């Protein structure tokens, strides 16, 4: 079990907020494979306050996906608090504050990972949001903005203050902001962090692609759980595998080609319910690139999928390559 404030998850893992990916379709697939908590894609605080956005059906969580979290980006405590309040009003069950995003366009505006350079600003935002809502409030950070003692000291200061303030969960990615996704995530600091703040729920992130490796990382570091991000794109099986691995049972057999195809078709059907004709096929191709990693003729299948211009071309291509004709 994983405790996030008043929210208790059956398993010690959840799906990360993934910009451009974790819409309702991806969240629903994760839930079907056993994920106990999913997130919508990261949202800018000022955009989530816009009346037109608030009225959009795709913006609101669906009845069959609770609990579901919302992650917000911003620099102004009052705006972040207002956005959090509106997100709870439309049905989100948890608010996560993004102080980790390494995207250049985010950093240029002083958002996301850029805030790790200012521990006091981070805590001001956290306090403002916490006081505005009654749901759990969590934080996502990295190991500082860059390398060097000053950045690492600021990281530890943020963790110390967040723990003292009673943050409901501290999610930590094992790289600095400037490292982005280069090299390997450093999980040793996560173990040190849990020893230093045993009363705080701490979950790790970074390079989580295989169930048995994830279980080893949890055991070695003592963290309370993990956040599955890139490892879940086109791979909902990671959640069912992880459930078995955590229970000490053998991993399920790898899905057959036909089973993979059926899962892909279900995901595609959900995509088509959300997006307009034409866009649905183009949008789904980025998921197919990852689904294809299991295919014995990956490059050939992927080339056909990427060449499909619309749903009428993509659907038969999927059925052909996964033996569903």
Could you please describe the fold and organization of this structure?
This protein has 325 residues and is an alpha/beta fold. The chain has helices at residues 24-32, 45-48, 51-55, 77-89, 104-107, 119-132, 149-165, 188-196, 211-221, 237-246, 257-274, 279-291, 298-307, 311-321; strands at residues 2-4, 7-9, 13-15, 38-39, 43-44, 68-73, 94-99, 137-142, 169-173, 202-205, 225-228. The strands form 2 sheets. Strands 3, 4, 5, 6, 7, 8, 9, 10 and 11 form a 9-stranded parallel beta sheet that branches. α1 runs antiparallel to α11 and α11 (257-274) runs antiparallel to α12 (279-291). The protein starts with a strand and ends with a helix. The model has no long low-confidence stretch (mean pLDDT 95).
Please specify the SSE layout and strand pairing:
Blueprint: E1 2-4, E2 7-9, E3 13-15, H1 24-32, E4 38-39, E5 43-44, H2 45-48, H3 51-55, E6 68-73, H4 77-89, E7 94-99, H5 104-107, H6 119-132, E8 137-142, H7 149-165, E9 169-173, H8 188-196, E10 202-205, H9 211-221, E11 225-228, H10 237-246, H11 257-274, H12 279-291, H13 298-307, H14 311-321
Parallel strand pairs: 3-11, 4-6, 5-6, 6-7, 7-8, 8-9, 9-10, 10-11
Antiparallel strand pairs: 1-2
Helix pairs in contact: 1-11, 4-6, 6-7, 9-10, 11-12, 13-14
């Amino acid at each position: 079990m994983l405790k996030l404030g008043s929210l208790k998850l059956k398993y010690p893992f959840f799906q990360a907020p993934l910009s451009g990916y974790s819409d309702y379709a991806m969240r629903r697939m994760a839930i079907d494979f056993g994920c106990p908590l999913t997130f919508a894609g990261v949202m800018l605080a000022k955009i989530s306050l816009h009346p037109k956005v608030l009225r959009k059906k795709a913006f609101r969580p669906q009845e069959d996906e609770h609990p579901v979290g919302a992650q917000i980006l911003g620099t102004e405590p009052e705006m972040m608090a207002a956005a959090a309040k509106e997100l709870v009003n439309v049905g989100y069950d948890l608010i996560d504050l993004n102080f980790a995003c390494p995207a250049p366009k985010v950093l240029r505006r002083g958002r996301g990972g850029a805030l790790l350079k200012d521990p006091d600003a981070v805590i001001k935002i956290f306090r403002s949001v916490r006081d505005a809502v009654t749901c759990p409030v969590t934080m996502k950070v990295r190991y500082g903005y860059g390398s060097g003692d000053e950045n690492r000291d600021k990281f530890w200061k943020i963790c110390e203050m967040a723990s003292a303030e009673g943050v409901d969960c501290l999610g930590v990615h094992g790289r600095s902001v400037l490292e982005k996704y280069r090299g390997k995530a450093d999980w040793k600091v996560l173990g040190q962090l849990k020893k230093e703040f045993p009363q705080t729920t701490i979950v790790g992130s970074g390079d989580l692609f295989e169930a048995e490796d994830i279980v080893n990382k949890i055991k070695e570091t003592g963290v309370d759980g993990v956040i599955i991000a890139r490892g879940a794109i086109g791979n909902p099986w990671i959640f069912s595998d992880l459930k078995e691995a955590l229970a000490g049972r053998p991993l399920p057999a790898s899905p057959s080609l036909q089973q993979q195809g059926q899962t892909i078709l279900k995901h595609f059907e959900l995509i088509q319910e959300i997006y307009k004709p034409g866009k649905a096929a183009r949008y789904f191709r980025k998921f197919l690139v990852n689904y294809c990693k299991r295919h014995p003729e990956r490059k050939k299948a992927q080339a056909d999928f990427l060449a499909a211009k619309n749903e009428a071309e993509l659907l038969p291509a999927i059925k052909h390559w996964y033996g569903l004709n």
